[in-house]
TrEMBL record:
Originating organism: Xaviernesmea oryzae
Upper lineage: Bacteria, Pseudomonadati, Pseudomonadota, Alphaproteobacteria, Hyphomicrobiales
InterPro entries hit by this protein: NADP_DH_HndA-like, NuoE-like, NuoE_N, Thioredoxin-like_sf
Taxonomic superkingdom: Bacteria
Family: Belongs to the complex I 24 kDa subunit family.
Protein name per Swiss-Prot or TrEMBL: Formate dehydrogenase subunit gamma
Positions that bind [2Fe-2S] cluster: C92, C97, C133, C137
Amino acid sequence: MTLHTTAPEEADRLPASAKERILEIVADCRSLEGPLLPILHAVQHEFGYIPEGAKPVIASALNLSRAEVHGTVTFYPDFRAHPAGRHVLKLCRAEACQALGGHALGDQARAMLGIDWHETAADGTITLEPVFCLGLCACGPAAMLDGELHARLDADGLAELITEIGR
Ligand code: FES
């Protein structure tokens, strides 16, 4: 069995209380089959993102390499590297929605918000994220604003959503 050590420099940047909470989450989930994803989801739920310093803590606790944890975090677009804004707008970037005009909506959202994918507006109002299918493929383009689904979104509908959140 290979033992992996925690990188002290990153893990130590986490406040002790955060490290403790992450270890509690690991303890709660470690008996699950394939515990890494549930742990990462729980950490993001708790902190709003995956703190860089959480990765070596999780890696060490699960006896994984930091590269394995980092690779999983970066593979799934749902995991954030930074805290999200007060609102989170997710636009579907999967094929069915792209065929129905999703690409133009992505361009419109980025232009209206002045941010790119995965970014948060400087005033903290909103984070723009791509998603890859929201289960509304027949009613695309689809979006989700703060957990609420929106189907058949067009340019006017998107502008309305963005105006509603004060942008
Ligand atoms: S492809 Fe967009 S909701 Fe499925």
